[in-house]
Amino acid sequence: MVLVMISIEEYRRKYAFGEDYGTSEYKFGPVAERPEVIENRGFLIDTSSIMYRIAGITKSVIVGPEVSMYLGSREDMSRFLVYPMRDGVVGKGDKRAWDVIYEITKYGLLKFKPSDPKFKGFYVTAALSAIAPKYMYEKIFEIHQRIDEEHGVVKAVTIIPQPLAVAIAQKTITCIVVESGHGNTQITPISRYPIRGAIISLNRGGAEANAITAEILKDCGYGDLVHEEKLVRMVKEAIGLVPRDLEEAIRKAKEDKEKYRAIFRIPNTPTVIDLGDNSWMRFLIGEIVFDPESEVFESYYKRGMPRPRDTRLGDEVVRGTINLADAIILSAQKTPLELQPHLYRRIILSGGNFAWRVPKGFEDVAVDAATKVRMLLRERGIEASVELTKDPLYSVWKGCIVYSIAVPDDYLWSWDRMEGWYKWR
Amino acid sequence: MALSRAGLLNAIKAYMAKRGLKVLLPEEAPVPGHLSDLVDLVARDGDNVVAFSAFSHRVASDPQLRRLVNLEVARLSKLTSFVNKVYLVMPVEYVRSSVLDGRLFEEAGVGLMSVGEDGAVEEVIPARPFERMPLLAAGGDLERRLSALEDRLSKVEEAVGRYVRELSELAGEVRGLSAQLSRVRSELESLRAIARRPAEARPEVSVERVEQPEAPALEGGLPSFVQGNPWLEVLARRGREE
Predict the structure, then answer these.
(1) CATH classification at residue A152
(2) Per the domain annotation, does A422 fall within a domain?
(3) Looking at the 3D structure of chain A, how many domains does it have?
(4) Which helix (H) or strand (E) holds A324?
(5) Which of A63, B11, B41, B158 is the most exposed place for a label (fewest CB within 10 A)?
(6) Of B105, B122, B231, the CB nearest to A49
(7) Is B8 helix (H, G, I), strand (E, B) or coil?
(8) What's the mean per-residue pLDDT of chain A?
(9) Hey, which CATH number is domain B5-125, 2.120.10.30, 3.40.1350.10, 3.90.870.40, 3.40.50.1380?
(10) How confident is the model at residue B176 (pLDDT cuts 50, 70, 90)?
(11) ∠ CA(A287), CA(A289), CA(A293), 5° rounding?
(12) Which of A49, A54, A171 is nearest residue B230 as measured by Cβ atoms?
């Protein structure tokens, strides 16, 4: 047996830095058990005023915890508060969004800038969505180079797709990572490298579960509440369930209405939402995440609920409503045949859209996300091992730290491989 | 011609009404009595309490105006412990770079609003938000806080006592280690003396060379998600396997 000794430079081990650019949060920091977290947003100060003609005023974008102090009215929020990412992607020409990304990145790096005179900059690994276009890579590199030129805090930077970071944090070399956030779901097979040609990105995520929750609320007479997006999300999280088998769950819920009755009291208000005889609908909320093609949803699509948009995979069109298990199989089929059984041996579910709980006493009708995917694959003749990430909040950042520590210093960035350290000094 | 104090305040009131700010009565404002002269209007904006002070002095020259404004900013900075934001409100013709020191405003955290002849209000320099310090409330509240502080103090005393005990134990251990070190030194000296003797005087000793396994320096002191991670080996080979 050959024992491979890993020799890691002390410097890189000390000054590894991870950055996870999530749609709602930016997680960052050097080697530690947990990262720092701030919201991925910025407050832009109105530069059209004469402020800039007066000496000494320099700050134009506020990021970090200070942002909430600047929020006065709703008008301010819509005019000056910028969330730069939409489903993990920043528009190429969206200057305001890129200004916020620059400030957020600078905030993170300067927060941890050490006073050590031997410090020559961090080895930064940034994680972006698997579907981030090439210009985002270029911009992120450019931002780090600019911050380094201004403050001397970046020695080298690299970018990895978030699903690869999840696999690294889970200590799994061959697997399929299914990451599902608010607006999209990415399926990424990984075998030492992400298999880019097999990545499938579906235009659906937590937003679809929110949409069906809003429709259910309207049907049950709570139409006035559906304009508050946050409230709809709270209702979804409180009453939504993933059915083991949709038809069976609906039948049981209709037979024993009291047991499955969905009641939700809005915190700090006297308002109570009670689905009453329609409580069986709570199973639709979880089902749509895994199988939006189910016939039961057709009536909702016809009534105006948006149908998830189709997506392209090479020359092929993948239906937006494809069953999640079919999408996983489709992605695996794009990899070599002999690799496929190894991929099915470890399917990792990550992201907030897979955080479904099973209330006590409901085990016969409701399941968690991993069990649901395992069952759907079994129906298609595939025995797979499916698990949820152990640490869904921080796993991407953790993968970034391992990447920074391990990748050799002389492995330089290549646009063909989309890997390696990007350096300018 | 510069706006009067009443003109400035009317414009600010209209501005607040437009933005949905709620004007607070003097007794509702969390400003202590000795500072209340500094404030002309106090309003609630979301979670923030914002104070406005109108500047309507008539001045003969720019240097005089500059001195007065700087003085006013210094006085207003006292309010930053009691409200979240503080604004100085001035007629727009006073807002000139030859008069205002933007850095002073920024450092003091005081914002600046200008009011035009037509009543148009503009936020020239945004106020820096501050954490508000609650005014001391009724006696009962004070007593409760004092008793909480006493509890915390006794906990701190306990902790200090514990640390003192631990320190004295550590000091004892250090003294023991120091004695051991002296013994090791003297043994080392005697070994050196033996080594300096002629070779024939020394007995032949066969030394078996033992290969020490190189410790994986990487693992020690690293977070749990790094330790034992198979990706370390995979990633360390990047660029070396082609």
Answers:
(1) 3.30.420.40
(2) no
(3) 2
(4) helix A324-332
(5) B158
(6) B122
(7) helix
(8) 89
(9) 3.40.1350.10
(10) confident
(11) 70
(12) A171
Find out whether A214 and A385 touch, Cβ atoms under 8 Å.
Answer: no
**Could you report the per-residue pLDDT of B191-226, keeping only the tens digit for each?**
777 676 654 444 443 333 333 333 334 455 789 999
A138: helix, strand or coil: helix
Structure-derived torsion over alpha carbons of residues A176, A180, A184, A185, reported in degrees to the nearest 10: 20
- The SS3 call for residue A157 is strand
B226, closest residue in chain A (CA to CA) = A402
- Is there a single domain that holds both residue A208 and residue A353? yes
DSSP category for residue A131: T
- Same domain membership, residue A247 and residue A161: no
Give yes or no for a contact between B237 and A193, defined as CB atoms under 8 angstroms apart. no
Q: Which of A160, A195, A200, A159 is nearest to A178 (CA)?
A: A200
Same-domain pairing of A341 and A397 = no
Shortest Cα distance, chain A CAs vs residue B240, angstroms:
9
Dihedral angle over CA of A151, A157, A160, A166, nearest 10:
-70
* Alpha-carbon distance values, A191 to A20, A176, A198, A275, A318 (Å): 22, 9, 12, 46, 23
Q: Is residue A15 part of a domain?
A: no
How does DSSP assign B94-114, residue by residue?
A: G--TTT--HHHHHHHT-EEEE
Is residue A34 domain-shared with residue A56, that is, in the same domain? yes
d(CA B4, CA B91): 9
Domain around A98: 22-165+393-406
Q: What is the CATH number of the domain that holds A272?
A: 3.30.420.570
Residue of A nearest to B106 (CA): A57
Q: Do residue A208 and residue A289 come from a single domain?
A: yes
**Chain B: residue whose CA lies nearest to A48:** B124
Q: Is residue A241 part of a domain?
A: yes
Check whether A3 has a pLDDT greater than 60. no
Residues 396-425 of A with CB under 8 A from B: 398, 401-403, 405-408, 410-411, 419-420
A31: which chain B residues are within 8 Å (Cβ-Cβ)? 222-223, 226
Tell me the three state secondary structure of residue A373.
helix
Per-domain boundaries in chain B: 5-125, 138-195
Interacting residues of A11 by C-beta distance below 8 A, sequence separation 6+: A118, A120
DSSP code at position B206: -
Q: What ipTM, to 2 d.p.? A: 0.86
Q: Which residues pair with B182 in a beta bridge?
A: none
- Residue in the block written with tokens 């509890």: B151
DSSP-assigned letters across all residues of B150-176: HHHHHHHHHHHHHHHHHHHHHHHHHHH
Based on the fold, state whether residues A402 and A350 are members of the same structural domain. no
pLDDT digits (tens, 9 = 90+) for A128-140: 988 889 999 999 9
The whole-angstrom distance between B88's CA and the closest CA on chain A is 14
Tokens of B49: 């309490």
A159 and A218 belong to one structural domain = no
Distances (CA, A) of A130 to A21, A161, A189, A364, A418: 12, 5, 11, 36, 12
- Which pLDDT score, from 0 to 100, does residue B213 have? 33
| Token pair for B105 | 């405003």
Q: Do residues A318 and A202 lie in contact, with contact meaning Cβ atoms separated by under 8 Å?
A: yes
